């Protein structure tokens, strides 16, 4: 019975491992034009569903209380959009004098400038028993940033 409880608690990680194992065993299911149609399902449906579900899980009271966490929002924006990319850039400057492939460095720079996925942050914060008030505030912060980013890039 203890194993079943552990599996219920770690359902997300088990699901990730099973998805990776399934992709390794049968990669043709997830290729472009394959049965899952990832060019549509991943690009549009999955992303929209994640943000829609995340938004639905926020209560109006939590949204209004999250608005007062201005310092937290400012910290998240500066850390995610300035400090981390600048740190990665400095690290890449050091790596550029090594024989590492130039395209690998460009890929690392791209990934270093991308904010973390909100869905993973929500699940992992809850899994480790993190501060849910700050998590909710940061989720609101990320959702509003993402909305502005999508609006700006359209």
TrEMBL record:
Gene3D superfamilies reported in the protein's UniProt record: 1.20.1530.20
Entry's transmembrane regions: 41-58, 70-92
Keywords from the named record: Membrane, Transmembrane, Transmembrane helix
Origin superkingdom: Eukaryota
GO cellular component entries: plasma membrane
Similarity annotation: Belongs to the bile acid:sodium symporter (BASS) (TC 2.A.28) family.
PANTHER family: SODIUM_BILE ACID COTRANSPORTER 7 (PTHR18640:SF5), SOLUTE CARRIER FAMILY 10 MEMBER 7 (PTHR18640)
Protein name: Sodium/bile acid cotransporter 7
Source organism of the structure: Pteropus alecto (Black flying fox)
